[in-house]
Q: What sequence folds into this?
């Protein structure tokens, strides 16, 4: 009888510890999502170089802003900021041009460390998978050189930061023909298909194509539509913002709902 009671007690302790550890892990993830959602609500950053003043409510921007620039013709590599933006605190790329209500904007977080210099590729004999005549060959479309971005949006290790990146022309948001929307959907579907084909990122051809055609290019996160931002600058500028949609997402997050689909 005592042995049976001891066995029941041990099982009770085992299941209690297992359940407690499960709840702790689940709660830590839950509160991490709430913390990220709260960070999405606010924007406060110092940016340089930039000149002008402007206001953006969702995709509607007005004012006169020149923020960013080029260190060499066509390079478009200037325009950085530091602060809280896109749900992350740290350095980020920020470029914005507003003339009246026309212009565009680009934003993405910067990697913590610079990308290592890739070693020169070694010449290796072609495998059957790289032979166009082989049955498993996948032909990737070429990226036109004249459309390549000299300063493309990088693919970061943090997938959540990738989803917050965007590059958009304001006029294109309002005037986007049906054919262009269909083309964009096909391209997005194809990129997702390639990502599923190479989840471990070991296929050099696929990864090269995805790097040259970043998923966030000419796209924007859902929260972009609900952002209210004020920018003012004389070389060094200040950007302040509040996101109504992300605030609602933060509140609904306590019930388990993910309105912005960013709990990654």
A:
């Amino acid at each position: 009888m005592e042995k049976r009671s001891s066995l029941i007690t041990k099982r009770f302790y085992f299941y209690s510890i297992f359940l407690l550890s499960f709840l702790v892990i689940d709660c830590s993830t839950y509160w991490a999502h709430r913390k990220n959602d709260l960070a999405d609500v606010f924007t406060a950053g110092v940016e340089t170089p930039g000149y002008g003043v402007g206001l953006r409510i969702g995709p509607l921007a007005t004012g006169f802003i020149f923020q960013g620039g080029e260190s060499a013709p066509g390079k478009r590599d200037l325009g950085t900021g530091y602060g809280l933006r896109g749900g992350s605190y740290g350095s980020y790329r920020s470029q914005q041009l507003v003339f009246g209500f026309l212009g565009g904007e680009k934003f993405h977080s910067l990697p913590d460390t610079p990308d290592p210099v890739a070693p020169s590729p070694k010449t290796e004999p072609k495998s059957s998978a790289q032979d166009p005549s082989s049955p498993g060959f996948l032909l990737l479309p070429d990226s036109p050189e004249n459309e390549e971005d000299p300063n493309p949006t990088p693919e970061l290790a943090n997938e959540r930061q990738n989803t917050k990146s965007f590059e958009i022309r304001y006029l294109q948001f309002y005037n986007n023909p049906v054919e262009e929307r269909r083309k964009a959907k096909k391209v997005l579907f194809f990129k997702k298909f390639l990502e599923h084909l190479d989840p471990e990122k070991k296929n050099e051809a696929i990864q090269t194509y995805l790097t040259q055609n970043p998923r966030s290019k000419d796209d924007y996160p859902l929260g972009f539509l609900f952002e209210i931002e004020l920018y003012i600058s004389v070389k060094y500028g200040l950007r302040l913002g509040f996101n109504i949609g992300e605030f609602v997402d933060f509140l609904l997050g306590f019930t388990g709902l993910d309105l912005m689909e960013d709990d990654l």
Summary: Strands lie at 42-57, 60-67, 80-85, 88-100, 102-109, 166-169, 227-243. The helical segments are 2-41, 159-164, 170-174, 178-197, 204-212, 244-253. The chain is about 35% helix and 25% strand.
